[in-house]
């Protein structure tokens, strides 16, 4: 494979992954903010500072953040696998990509 062909495959994957990951990132960010904003609003309405959060509120925010991180990693991985499959199944004008099983004799 030449460098130009490798660049074409990389670019094909990159833009496909981007158009799939960007909306997913926007959704995950909005979902994260939907969990954080109510806690911060409750704290502000009670007249307390954000630094006065109790242990339960901090644990709620931390476990929610860890859950969101794990979910987003899984979803982004799935999206990237789909984008790679989509890119590798596309047609190329000057070359072909083919998945070949390893030679059992070699």
How would you describe the overall organization of this protein?
The chain is 73% helix and 0% strand. The two termini are 22 Å apart. The protein has a domain at 52-91. With 106 residues, the protein is mainly α. It has two helices and no strands. The protein has helices spanning 3-45, 55-88. The model has no long low-confidence stretch (mean pLDDT 81).
Protein traits:
2 helices; 106 residues; 73% helix; mainly alpha
Q: Could you tell me the radius of gyration in angstroms?
A: 22 Å
**Proportion of strand residues:** under 5%
Could you give the distance between the termini? 22 Å
Shape: elongated
Q: Would you list the SSEs in sequence order as H and E? A: HH
* Low-pLDDT ranges: none
Q: Based on helices, strands and strand pairing, what is the structural class?
A: mainly alpha
In brief:
With 106 residues, the chain is mainly α. It has helices at residues 3-45, 55-88. It is elongated and about 70 Å long.
In terms of topology, how is this protein built?
Elements: H1 3-45, H2 55-88
